[in-house]
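#struct-help
A.M.: can someone run this one for me? Single chain, 301 residues.
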Amino acid sequence: MPTKRRQHPDPVPARQPSQIADRFFLPAREKVVLGFKVLMLKESKPWDSSMSLKTLIVDDEPIARKILREELELVAEVEVVAEADNGSRALEEIARHQPDLVLLDLQMPVMGALDVFRNLKHGTRLPVIVIVTAYDQFALQAFEAGAIDYLLKPVGHERLAQAVERARRLTPRDAVEKLARLQEIGETVTGPGPRRIVGRVGEEFFLLSADEIYAFQAEGDIVWIITAERKYEATQTLKVLEDRLKTTGFRRIHRNALVNVDHVRKMSALTSQRWLITLGNGREFIASKRQARSVRQILQW
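D.P.: on it. Structure tokens below:
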């Protein structure tokens, strides 16, 4: 008896701009901090299951892309917007289509997946990454690093549907945090790489290298990331950031501040118990004698 072919789902209606905005341009409220009006984003929500998941397929093998496309056509509320055969093309398609989900082959010529991770910097719509590979050890490493899931070739329909469902449950904030961890792992392949910290300005997320950060400063429930020219809102608490950066040059100089000792330009004694620390961008912090001592020890002052 011939096998009954699975039916394709009904076409998904085109999304209206307002639907896209509801998903990625998060509701905001304004708050005045230190005389500046800043945009405070409300907590993001997981993907709305009634909306189509825009998906990019990246693999250097045409047959692998064809199989993934055919299988995705059988998954409800998924729209394949483009394909790419290498990492360089993938970055172009991500910029052009702003997909919600990228199925990314880990090993490709020209530019591989690790280079794709490194070159995704910021935006309102950073995608969720699912690794696709024929090698189990690479998949496990990527999954532990920050990919929300991994698929082993040949990819089965049920397993693919599970990965898509996991992608739906992720919030934009979760996605960018995982991408930051993928970038850290990608950079350690060629040598010790800097930590990646997620910052936010309005509706945009930025992946910042720890090297370019001068300090973190907490003001109430907000933690500011301070760089040479601007401030970003952190997505993690000061304690979490301190733990993540404990092997770097960041040191706590106040209960509300961490500074990067590589950017300390001057230390001046205010009293016998208090020191003024000036950073390379001119920002100043007051530290106790005990807290300033740890900075001086690192700088060998």
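A.M.: thanks! The CA atoms of residues 35 and 265 lie 26 Å apart.
D.P.: also worth noting: Residues 47-188 form a domain with the Rossmann fold fold (CATH 3.40.50.2300).
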